[in-house]
Amino acid sequence: MHIMEGFLPLEWCLVWWAAALPFVCWGVNRLRQVLDADREALPLLGVTGAFIFILSSLKLPSVTGSCSHPTGTGLSAICFGPAITSVVCMVVLLFQSLFLAHGGLSVLGANIVSMGIVGPAAGYLVYRLLRETRVNLYFTVFLACAVADLVTYLTTSLQLALAFPAEVGGVAASFGVFFVIFAITQVPLAIIEGIVLALVFKYIVQLKPGIISRLRIFPDEAIRAARGEG
Amino acid sequence: MRYRLEILALVAVLAFIVLFLYATTVMPGAEYAGSDTVGSSRIAALTGRDPASFTPLLPQWKPPSGEIEAGLFALQAACGGLVAGYIFGRWKGESGKKGPE
After folding, report:
1. Is 0.80 surpassed by the pTM of this model?
2. Which domains does chain A have, with CATH numbers?
3. CA angle A98-B81-B75, nearest 5°?
4. Nearest neighbour of A50 by CB, restricted to B20, B55, B83
5. Which end of chain A is more exposed for a tag (fewer CB within 10 A), N or C?
6. What is the ipTM of this complex?
């Protein structure tokens, strides 16, 4: 879950806004380039964005006795990279801040950094590392999506720990506290999210292998192999 | 196997449900509050401040009730579902016209 409005001191709100804005601007620019180059990328962007909308609205109970929601950002990170993902996330987070009192405008920067930038970037890194290997394409998607989800909440824990260091033990102690609340709760949800998004990717591969190949998301051989085995 | 991923997803969701049901028996008093609410109360405890003293820095509209909030969350999911369904449907229609690629 995102940081709530009012729960981050003003100076930290500004720091995270300053960190998020250049990235979002870069994302808008990238978005224009990608869509200019290939209009067929637009429906794919729609699908990946739609799953961020769906998954980030589902508050699920977890083994820790609290609830959290998946992020759904991994698929977009794989298909379009973290920059464009940050723009899509900003739209979702803005919707949630304005209409659901979930997150907030002052903490929007911090929440974009965790859910829109660091999480997707971590997922993207996993995808890039596994892309050229012989690892199964769907397993790569699963792992990248699960990592994007988990790292989002690791980042939230770190953001809160930096703003509220414990009196004894400082940032590290406080990170431990928030890690248990945010990241441990997230583990089962991240696994489910990874599997669901791998399944979504399977349908994209089956219906539109052309766009995956043109955007060079996966090598052609990997797409052919994945289509063959279903 | 053709439906390997589907079966895997189904098993994972079932395992998730069983795990959840088991957790409810182990922790009967669990509130299942949002992790953001739990985190915020921990912030209040860390700073020694009253949770009510954390007021929004920017004015924020709050859904008047839990029901309305749940409805708006459902609306968010529905918007996503609509777009995803439309695009997948269009892709499916296109692939049908051309025959299998």
Report:
1. yes
2. 10-219 (1.10.1760.20)
3. 35
4. B83
5. C
6. 0.89
